[in-house]
Amino acid sequence: MEKLLKASLSLALLGILLLLILSTTLKPSLETPSNIKNYQEYQRIRIQGELLSLKELRPNFFVLNLKNKNDTISVILNTKEKIENKLNISQENNLEVIGKINFYNNQTQINADKIELLE
């Protein structure tokens, strides 16, 4: 009976470890700004687009506007350091953003968790 308990406990811990590894390595599906409106709030999403503008509203609080084909979307970023120093980005750079969907003043935004510069 004791062996069965140890085996089931180790199997459960292994399963939890596997789920943690998968949740950090898998990327969400790539979407367009027009399709995002069909998703629920706080759902993780991945989007790519060209940087149109970058505004710093408060220290370390940025709003990026991305354009993908004919659609645009705002990306909100809270960071502890300057975004220009972190990514070396400027206008017309292509970016990939992973974050959560948020609706503010009847507009769809993405709260960025991760931003990567595409080449």
Explained architecture:
It is built from 3 helices and 6 strands. By secondary structure, it is of the alpha/beta class. It has one domain (29-118): Nucleic acid-binding proteins (OB fold (Dihydrolipoamide Acetyltransferase, E2P), Beta Barrel), CATH 2.40.50.
Element layout with pairings:
Layout: H1 2-25, E1 30-31, H2 33-36, E2 44-58, E3 61-68, E4 71-78, H3 83-87, E5 94-104, E6 107-118
Parallel strand pairs: 1-2, 4-6
Antiparallel strand pairs: 2-3, 2-5, 3-4, 5-6
Secondary-structure content class: alpha/beta
CATH class: Mainly Beta
Find the count of extended strands (DSSP E, 2+ residues): 6
The total count of helices amounts to: 3
Distance between the termini: 58 Å
Strand line-up of the largest beta sheet: 2-3-4-6-5
Roughly what is the average pLDDT, rounded to an integer? 83
What is the percentage of strand-forming residues?
over 45%
What is the architecture at the second tier of CATH? Beta Barrel
Shape: elongated
Number of discrete domains: 1
Helix content: 25-40%
Main beta sheet, described? Answer: 5 strands, mixed, barrel
Give a brief description.
The chain has one domain (29-118): Nucleic acid-binding proteins (OB fold (Dihydrolipoamide Acetyltransferase, E2P), Beta Barrel). The protein has helices at 2-25, 33-36, 83-87, and strands at 30-31, 44-58, 61-68, 71-78, 94-104, 107-118. The chain has 3 helices and 6 strands.
Main attributes?
OB fold (Dihydrolipoamide Acetyltransferase, E2P), 3 helices, single chain, 119 residues, alpha/beta, 5-stranded mixed β-barrel
